Hints:
There is one protein chain. This protein has a single domain, classed as Recoverin, domain 1, CATH 1.10.238. It is 48% helix and 5% strand. Strands 1-2 form a two-stranded antiparallel ribbon. α1 runs antiparallel to α5 and α3 crosses α4. The termini are far apart. The N terminus and C terminus are likely disordered. The structure holds calcium ion. Calcium ion (CA) binds next to loops. Keywords: Calcium. InterPro entries: EF-hand-dom_pair, EF_Hand_1_Ca_BS, EF_hand_dom. This is EF-hand domain-containing protein.
Amino acid sequence: xxxxxxERRRGEGDGNQVVWAEKERRWAVVDGTxxxxxxxxxxxxxxxxxxxxxxxxxxxxxxxxxxxxQPAVEDIGAALGLPAVGSSPSxxxxxxxxxxxxxxxxxxxxxxxxFKEVLSDILSCVAAGLKKDPIVILRVDGEDLKEFITxxxxxxxxxxxxxxx
Length: 165
Ligand SMILES: [Ca+2]
């Protein structure tokens, strides 16, 4: 009688943020609805953060170093439609800014509560930005992004690309 996990049903029928997605072409327009839902659902977001933090905390010391934060920063960049780290100074600047958000501009490690708070802020901003300028996702590759935005109906495997600015 238990529902299979990840089948939260909420995703059913609310696929309007995915305006169009087709297996052969593998692209879709995303407007941040799912990100917003994740952040607003306190329980789901807490468990997401727990999971994410554990995954990022490679040395299991309960804090995230700058290096350990890097994958999270890259995922956020991907969600923003940025090109990969190192591909341009202007996008690298944004990556640095995101990292600075996490560390509050200090070169220090980040606790779980700080990580959660900043992630929530950043994701809310990302969702607001996406609402204004939906991006086209092309075969998403980041696993985290998958967690953020996919329902069981869609398989994205790489991100990206054009964003209406
Ligand atoms: Ca650590």
